[in-house]
Structure prediction request, 526 residues.
Amino acid sequence: MRKTTISLILLSIILMVSCNGKHDVRISTALSLADSDKADSALNILNKIDRNELPNSDDAMYCLVYTMAQDKSGLDVDNDSLIREAYDWYGKKPTDTLYAKCMYYMGKYYALNDSSEKALMCFNIAFKAAKTRDDYSTQCLALEQLSLILRDYDTKKAIAYAKLAVTIYNNVKDLKPSNLAYYLLNLAECMSYREINHDRCVSLAKRAIKYALQSKDSTTISNSYQDLSVFYSLKDSLKLAIESSKVSNDYNTKQDFSKEFALCQLYVLSDSFIQAKQRLDACRPLSYSDRCSLYYLKRTIALREHDWTEAEIFADSTDYFLEKKNSENLKAKNKYYELMLQKEIARTILSGESSWKTKLIYFISFTALLIILLLSFIFYQRKKRMLEKEAEKEKLHQIEAVHKEEQLTTIKNFLLSKIDVVQRLMSINSSDRKEIVLSNKDWREIEVFLNSVDDEFVTRLKKEFPKLTQKDIQFLMLVRLKLPYESIAVIYNIEEKSVKQRLFLFKSKLGLNKGGKSTREFIEAY
Prediction:
């Protein structure tokens, strides 16, 4: 009797384990396909599955595999509608085989939404969990993401993680040359942040290119040459940078605006304005953000060529597409929230919720839609009023211009005597690395110029940010003049990257830590 009882208990445990470990065969197949870099095939299978018919364990796996397939197909999963459900399930099951993968993709979501601390926590957990299961692929992916986050403020640790990823992946039995190429490029990028010998970065990029060529994957080859171009530009080897960027674009089988635009920027840096304009005219920007970048660079070229009319036209185009971009983002958010509401309604009905809850959800959904429509209406009304105010300001400006012609003539004569130092700054050639020493008189003249023509810029800056030192003010005056990074670097006799780092450090003094706006954007718009 006792033996029979024990046998029944053991049989029950075995049945429970086997039932718990069994998943929908379609989802398991999709997981295998996603792991094999066949993300599109995995998505095709998953899109045919009705989630409402799945038990909780299969639904959690579905959410994770769908997120994984989207990521491997090149989509940034920047909302947590799926991965959050998987995280809620697997987060309580650290011994599950998919636990490490779930932590990794949750970390990617946090990283895409600027939650660095949460992302670091998830990637660390993913690395440790994958290590216990000898999951080398997930280990390397987590290490790569850790290095990407840390390279900005803990470069030494970022390099250590990147090196470890290369070492681990070198020991993988069936390694993919394309993956090894990307891990080498990541290591080179981390090293470039320390401003050490850039020859080492170039050497790593060339190694990556060898593996990329072995993979015969045109995208990997193109990306490798693009990174090599960046490292050459950091060495001020613009000719080699341009050649590498050309090769990158030649291998690029798909239209990639960012790579074409990078080549155009190199042409501008080397003062090859004709080639830059030809390339820019051939570019096909896909988004409003791309169009903003394109017209901004065209405006830069026009300013360099002293074509003020063209510069003004391109500036207007930049502002126009920036406004379109903001409007598009608002529509996307509205669509996302509307889909979420529809999803909740459907799930509530199918799960047999009571009628009062269903009515409540319909009421909330209707109210939410009304709020969204109201916000959209307010947005467009504000935009309309803003345009009307700008039109009125322009009209008043024209009227005042007639009455103040003599005053403007006097100011113009005064500024002509002071403009010399500003023109000298704007004509700095980035290839001339000689130090330019500005006297106190020069700085005073720049300050007078900005205060006169730019709505008391320096006075306002000092008043609003009293913690800024005089040297800080001087540095920001050059930024306000929209001098290129390379020109500012020449004035201070430092590397261009040091200028960018110094701009980053200004964010705390200007109270920009919590916002997404850069110091340069803030000062130029201030």
User: Anything to note?
Assistant: The first helix runs from residue 2 to 21. The radius of gyration is 29 Å. The mean pLDDT is 79. The chain has 26 helices and no strands.
